[in-house]
Design a protein that fits this description.
single chain, alpha/beta, TIM Barrel, 11 helices, 37% helix, binds 3-methyl-2-oxobutanoic acid
């Protein structure tokens, strides 16, 4: 990418800031909207970017202001917001609702939404129809799709429709039952299949390949085999970007964490302490005080 992005010629909506997004200098992300070519620049220049999931307005705002380059409206909203045991039950309508909240709150990050289970597998046409809804109603900038080389035609159809696609290979949670549960994929001889999947999807036009729970050596082989940036979750340090589910990263979710999670805060403890202090005040009659009373 050689030329800087121009101001939107037809206006950019009531809440838009006038400054156009400049192309990022080496090692930095742009001041304006992060675009898919900025992620490619990161790969080309050997720099890295961060991605977090977000499902609501405040998390999206906080992460956007913190400089997270990519926000993923993951179908992990099923487990992390809606209380399901897996990602499978979440619907396209539910994904659109979460996507809309995140997209409206994020002024800088690239917002990517998952195509949920059942919304793309039947045909490339079905995938285009579902993705159009995610962009048109959910206001996201790109979609993420689970699956290997068998979905290359679907990626081609989406790209033809002007929809950027992030491919998701390795452990694909929507196939949990077919894969026999949460298991590292691409060990030993199976490594080549992950590489082949990634190459087929990148060749079909995916702008990025995300890998979940694969050995670092497999992720490195994928990263070497594709020109596009790679993103890892449980895929070692060799990818262009990393992603975590935000409730894991910030310590909101209780219970055992996956090996690949690093917890950066204790939000669950902070919230529980705040809730207990509030309840103590209410029971003691010290809240509301005069300063909270009309
Ligand atoms: O839905 C999600 O949160 C994901 C990440 C685990 C990559 O797909």
């Amino acid at each position: 990418m050689t030329s800087a992005e121009l101001p939107a010629p037809y206006g950019a909506g009531a809440g838009s800031t006038p400054a156009p997004a400049a192309d990022a200098p080496a090692g930095a992300t742009p001041a304006g909207r992060v675009r898919i070519h900025h992620l490619q620049q990161a790969k080309d220049q050997g720099t890295r970017f961060a991605m977090l999931t977000a499902y609501d307005q405040y998390a999206a705002q906080v992460f956007d202001e913190a400089g997270i380059e990519v926000l993923l409206v993951g179908d992990s909203a099923a487990n992390n917001v809606l209380g399901h045991a897996t990602t499978l039950p979440i619907t396209l309508d539910e994904m659109i609702l979460f996507s809309r909240a995140v997209s409206r709150a994020a002024s800088r990050a690239l917002v990517v939404a998952d195509l949920p289970f059942g919304s793309y597998e039947v045909s490339p046409e079905q995938a285009v129809e579902s993705s159009v809804r995610l962009l048109k109603e959910g206001l996201v900038h790109a979609v993420k799709m689970e699956g290997g080389a068998a979905y290359a035609d679907t990626v081609r159809a989406l790209v033809r429709a002007g929809i950027p696609v992030m491919a998701h290979v390795g452990f694909t949670p929507q196939s949990e039952h077919a894969l026999g549960g949460y298991r590292v994929q691409g060990r030993g001889e199976a490594s080549q299949r992950i590489v082949d999947d990634a190459v087929a999807l990148a060749d079909a036009g995916a702008f990025c390949v995300l890998m979940e729970m694969v050995p670092a050596a497999t992720a490195d082989a994928v990263d070497a085999a594709v020109r596009v940036p790679t993103i890892g979750i449980g895929a070692g340090p060799g990818t262009t970007g990393q992603v975590l589910v935000w409730q894991d990263m910030a310590g909101l979710r209780g219970g055992r964490q996956a090996r690949f999670v690093k917890q950066y805060a204790e939000v669950r403890t902070v919230l529980a302490d705040a809730a207990r202090a509030y309840a103590d005040d209410v029971r003691a009659g010290t809240f509301p005080g005069p300063e909270h009373t009309f």
